[in-house]
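[PROTEIN RECORD]
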Amino acid sequence: MTILLLSLLLFLILGIPIAYALGLSSFGYFVIQHPELLDILPMRFFSGLNLYALIALPLFILMGLLMNSSGITARLIDFSLLFVGRLRGGLGLVNVMASMIFGGISGSSASDTASIGAVLIPEMEKRGYPKRFAAGITVASSTMGMIIPPSIPMVLYAIIAEESVGKLFLGGLIPGVMIGLFQLGIVLIISIKNNYPTEEVSLTLQNVVRQGKRSSVALVMPLFVVGTVVFGVATATESAAMGAGYALLVGILLTTGVARSNYLKKTLPQTLNSAIQTSAKIMIIIAMSKLYIWVLALERIPEAVTAFVVAMALPPTVMLLFIVLIILIAGTFIDVSPAIMLLTPVFLPACVAVGISPIQFGAILISALAVGAVTPPVGTCINVASAISGLGIGTIFKGAAPFLLANVITLILISIFPALTLWIPSLFMN
């Protein structure tokens, strides 16, 4: 086990991507400890990918990217502006509200950061907001994209934990909304204190209906995708396929003339290429992680952790808060997908052993890793925001820190009160 951990640490220090670091450290372990098993490694590598449920991942990725490229971002911003634009710090509030809606469409925090940030960071700077504030609220609010259903990380966790995708989608709903509401409150307090501008908008029934119609193609997406899974109309894979088809149709219908031609000839191929590359990266991580998980199983690490936790006789809430701290630290150095692959088989058995629901643990795991996605040095979202804004990741993190308080408060609450993650799944699914 020492060989495994030290080699992994060495590879990460050398700057080797996490997926390949996992694979190389696992290979080194088998060379030294179990050379008789080397012939089985290729089979274990490919068997880790030979799962029907995994088809949902590239389809959800494609769905999010297609919706991202269809021009709905501006419509969602205009729709959000109607309700919160007249308040102090209107564009900051719009940033959070649009992320809440967009997170339920793309299933990806990085897509949220890229789409919302590309529009609102320059616009907020133009309206007199500090760029650090604009970039900070953009990355902080994007964390909801991993939690509010449909969520790509939730699908990955469901596969590893062998749990219902529908239950996990519903389990993340209240935590995701809580983060959004808390962030809205923090933005409002900061905006009032700093006298940030308001926006001139007319909240009339006519405008609400008009903007609602323009945004309806996007607003029905999460209801369609999540609803078909929850009510047993389709599996997660089938729902993702239908969602991708719907997103493609939206992209074609929302464009006309030259714009449609450009979408079909240029934007669509680029989107498909991006979906292929992103999916391939995740699949490589999954395959390499499966080898690493096999090593953990051979060394009986999950059993050892479970025995240690049970022997400590900690109250479940205290244990969860301790695990949350570990996840937050790990999320700082490990990207979301490999973190899910590595941490789930280690901590989930221990949680189940003391009576904690896998649904609650899944919501806690994803919510905690969402913080890591906006934390230097490896946070995907913070690096995307840096590319958009031109600011350093340290500066952006300082701007995001006040808003991440919402995430921490939510993590504590869902650890203490299981009903926040289990109530809605219990209403709709047995």
In short: The chain has a mean pLDDT of 84. Residues 52-428 form one domain. The chain has one domain: 52-428. DSSP finds 21 helices and no strands in the chain.
